[in-house]
Design brief:
six-stranded mixed sheet, 32% strand, alpha+beta, single chain
């Protein structure tokens, strides 16, 4: 009879939210364990220098441990830290950043600003739901992958997307099950703007006329915009309503709207992003006549591309002028000047930087 291993004392968390313990000089990464806790674990992967495990019994709980709000936490692979209180989650992420700067970047910041915090629930304005037909579970599943699995979690709600979107999951399962191509819809991508909620249906075969009526009725009945994506991200187009309603999120403090396509990269947490922009502009201290551009790298279609959120932003001595135009997301290769027209008629432009 095998003698169970002694409980482990958790020392810290890694960047994926796993507790770190050590036994006989080997690091053990434990899902569901927190610093300061003593836990018994089940190992599911052994390597010469480390092991991966899950917490089975918590003998001594940390003060930061809370009851996860989501009924699917632990099964669904979408969240890793719901068993940790909010302030501790923020502290963990800041420590990950500090460690990356020190160990990877080989730099130490002269000053660390206080972390930006936002709503804990209903904040996620981007998501990609996997769709799968599983007769043994009653038909269609719409959700995230189960943890460490290619299976789709059997879920009827999600606490981190807006509540109105969470309530749509059972209805999506129902309408998908009625489509003639229900086995040929592998995913639905969510993109939430200030003016619309968009669901992008990835389709591997054309819809039948009956399918089209079903999706149109779904869009009208639940006040969402349905896009269809027959190929790569650039093939996504508005299906119903058919008019191309441009998504945007507003930075009202600066009289700016950031326009984007449903398949473009945007920050998932709009509330935190607004605070981040405000802080960045305050630190930049723009002067009269200066412009600010927000640049970020992205990968698309297996090649490295660069995307920019670029805007013509004029500043007077008292701050941004009221004539400032909108921002639009544009993309292109390295060392290229990107321009796109704005509603005011004048182009927004930015020059890429070499990285």
């Amino acid at each position: 009879m095998k003698i169970p291993d002694a409980p482990l004392d958790i020392e810290s968390l890694d960047q994926e939210g796993r507790g770190i313990a050590r036994r006989d000089g080997k690091a053990i990464f434990v899902e569901g364990a927190l610093p300061g806790e003593r836990v018994s674990v089940a190992v599911f992967r052994r390597k010469p220098t480390f092991e991966l495990a899950t917490a089975q019994t918590v003998h001594k709980a940390a003060a930061s441990r809370v009851t996860p709000r989501c009924a699917y936490f632990g099964l669904c692979g979408g969240c890793a830290l719901q068993h940790v209180d909010g302030p501790t989650q923020v502290a963990v992420k800041q420590r990950v950043l500090e460690d990356a700067l020190r160990h990877i970047g080989k730099v130490r910041p002269e000053q660390m600003l206080s972390p930006i915090q936002g709503p804990a629930w209903g904040y996620r304005h981007r998501a990609r739901f996997t769709v799968r037909h599983v007769p043994k579970k009653g038909g269609m599943l719409v959700g995230f992958h189960e943890k460490r699995s290619s299976y789709v979690a059997d879920m009827t709600g999600c606490a981190v997307v807006p509540e109105r979107i969470s309530a749509l999951l059972p209805r999506l399962r129902d309408v998908l099950g009625k489509l003639s191509i229900h086995r040929r819809v592998p995913q639905i991508e969510l993109a939430v703007g200030d003016n619309a909620d968009v669901l992008v249906f990835r389709i591997l075969e054309p819809l039948s006329p009956a399918d089209e009526r079903l999706l149109a009725d779904f869009a009208d009945g639940h006040s969402v915009v349905v896009y269809l994506q027959p190929g790569g991200p650039d093939t996504a187009y508005p299906f119903h309503p058919p008019a191309d309603r441009e998504l945007y999120y507003a930075l009202s403090e600066f009289d700016v709207r950031v326009y984007f396509r449903p398949t473009d990269f945007t920050q998932v947490n709009h509330a935190v992003n607004a605070v981040l922009v405000r802080r960045a502009i305050r630190l930049l201290d723009p002067q009269a006549g200066e412009r600010i551009a927000d640049l970020f790298p992205s990968r698309a279609a297996g090649r490295r591309w660069w995307r920019w959120k670029a805007a013509r932003r004029s500043f007077s001595r008292r701050g941004p002028t009221r004539s400032a135009t909108d921002l639009r997301t544009v993309s292109g290769s390295r060392s290229r000047i990107c321009s796109s027209p704005t509603p005011g008629g004048s182009p927004s432009s930015v020059v890429s930087t070499a990285c």
